What does this fold into?
Amino acid sequence: MKAAVFHAAHDIRVEDVPAPTGVGSREVLVRPYWCGICGTDLHEYAMGPIVTPAKPHPLNGSVIPQILGHEFSAEVIEVGAGVTRIEVGDRVSAMPLLVDNECYYCRRGLNHLCVKMACVGLSYAWGGIAELAVLPASILTVLPEGVSAQQGALVEPAAVAAYGVDAGLVKPGDTVLVTGAGPIGALAALYAASLGAHVFVSELNPSRQALIRGLGVAEVLDPITTDVAAHLKDLHEGVGVDAAIECSGNERALQTALASVRSAGRVVQVGLHTRPASIDAMGLAQHDLTLVGTWCYPVTDFPRIVGLIASGRLPVENIVSAKIAMADIVEKGFETLLSPTGDQVKVLVNARG
Ligand SMILES: [Zn+2]
It folds into this structure.
C-alpha cells in the first residue's frame, strides 16, 4: 500500500510499504480519508527525528521509518472479534494518543501525560497518511451523519485548542485574546466563540489575518501596527481582557498575552516554544495573574468535540487552506508550510489520492 513515510530530516517519501495482514481482537482496520499536517510533523521534517523514535519506543517498540499522520478520519474496513461498538462501514476519527494505563498519571486519569506515551503516526506501526491502518478500537469516535470526513480530520487539533481555551476558564460574555493564527489559534478562536466569548486574534501574517476575518468570529489585531495590549485595555475600561490563549510559541506573543489580560485574568500557554521566554514576573504577581500550560487534551474529549462539530457551533472545516494528494505531500505540504512567506494554515492530505 502507499504511505507517507518519515525516514529522516528532509526525507519523507511516499512509497509502497507492506499492508496490514490482520487485526487483533480489540483492533480495527481502517482506510483513512483525510489527514492534517501538524506542527509536530513539520518539526520532524525540518529537524527530526525528535518525537519519532530513533530507537525502539518504550511503549510499543516502534522505530523509524515511521508512517506519518495523526490528525485523521477513516472508514472502518474490518473489526476484531472482540469489538462490538464499531462496525464495518462506520466513519471514525482517531484519538491518536497511546498510553500504558499503568503509570502514575494514567492511574489518576491524566492519561495524556503518560510517561510512556506514544502516538499513532509518530511512534506506532501505522499512521493516517496511508491507504490502511490498524488501530485500537478504544481510540475511535464514530462520526455521526452530519459530520464530514474532512471535519473528522480536524477533531484532533480542535481538541488541543479546546483544552487550551477551557484552561482559560472562558465563560459566555468573556473577552479573550488569542495570539497566533496558525491552525490551533484559529481553532481556539472558533471554540472560544462557540462558548459565547468575544474574541480578538493577534496575528502578523496577512494570509492568516484574512483567514481569521473569513471565520467571522473574531476581530483581528496586527501586532506590527497595533499595540495589542494597549488597544485591548482601551476597549475594556483600561484593564484588558479576561483571558489570553497563547498559540504562537513566540516570546513576544506571550509577553503581549500577559500584558493584555486584566488583573486576576488567565493566560494559557498552548503553543510550543523552541527556546526559553522571559516574562514580567513582577506583573504576574502584582496583577494576581494565572499562567498555565496545556499539553494535548484529555484522551476522553473526542466525543464531546465531535458533538460540538455536529451541532454546527464549531465549523472546523473553515480553517482548511488547502487539500492535496498524498503524492504531493512534500512539495505542496511540508515545503509550503515551512516557507517563511507561506500562505497556508491547515493542509489536509487525501490519503486516497
Ligand atoms: Zn501511563
Remarks:
- The longest helix spans residues 155-167.
- The pocket of zinc ion is lined by residues 99-100, 102-103, 105-106, 114-116 (CB under 6 Å).
- DSSP finds ten helices and 18 strands in the chain.
- The two ends are 12 Å apart (CA to CA).
